[in-house]
Amino acid sequence: MPATAPAPPKQRDGPIEALRNLRIARRSAIDQRADTQRQIKALIVTAPDALRRRLRGLTSTKLRLTAVHGVGPDTAGQLLVTAGENYDRIHSEAAFAMLCGVAPIPAFSGKTTRHRLNRDGDRQANAAIYRVVLCRLRRDLRTRAYMERRTQDGMSKKEISCVPHQPRTSGFASESTF
């Protein structure tokens, strides 16, 4: 019988191990998502009729939000959670911006008048709006044109995000949106 050296053990450090751990975490997240979907479906099936009617309305609301370019299901869900059940309390686009922490507020320094973003508000909604902006900057022609126009005016990206603007004629918090 020939004497052979045993094969070296698999290394448990380095980039390949990190990749293995990421794949394990991903698989676990996918399994948990499937379990959660099954639980939600079971809850909906066994829910009282009144609750089921309300849930059907929520689906149509989410579909209207996801029709907006750059708004996916996750973002729509976060914006709905931020607005809450009584969205009629949000009377304007500016009020919603304050609620999400994306409203520009004046920041004075000597003779310089600038604006900065209000950092109060729902940070998850702020992150959701940021994702929408990134998506729209990549694919929406109007958003890209706005960014180019403001850049040509000599503004930085940071300044562009803080510029107060006139509200649109169709308010963000209108009942047709939510």
Protein architecture, described:
There is one protein chain. A hairpin with a 2-residue loop joins β1 and β2 (112-117). The protein has 178 residues and is mainly alpha-helical. It contains seven helices and two strands. The relative contact order is 0.10. It has a two-stranded antiparallel ribbon with strand order 1-2.
Category by helix and strand content: mainly alpha
Number of strands: 2
The low-confidence runs, each spanning 5 or more residues with pLDDT under 50, are: 166-178
Order of helices and strands: HHHHEEHHH
Q: Could you give the order of strands across the largest sheet?
A: 1-2
- Give the CA-based shape: flat
Percent range for helical residues?
Answer: 55-70%
Q: What composes the largest sheet?
A: 2 strands, antiparallel
Number of helices: 7
In angstroms, what separates the terminal alpha carbons?
77 Å
Radius of gyration: 24 Å
Q: How confident overall, as mean pLDDT?
A: 76
User: What proportion strand?
Assistant: 5-15%
Give short descriptive properties of this protein:
7 helices, flat, two-stranded antiparallel ribbon, 2 strands, mainly alpha
What's the layout of helices and strands?
Blueprint: H1 15-46, H2 49-66, H3 73-83, H4 93-100, E1 104-109, E2 112-117, H5 123-139, H6 141-152, H7 157-161
Antiparallel strand pairs: 1-2
Helix pairs in contact: 2-3, 3-5, 5-6
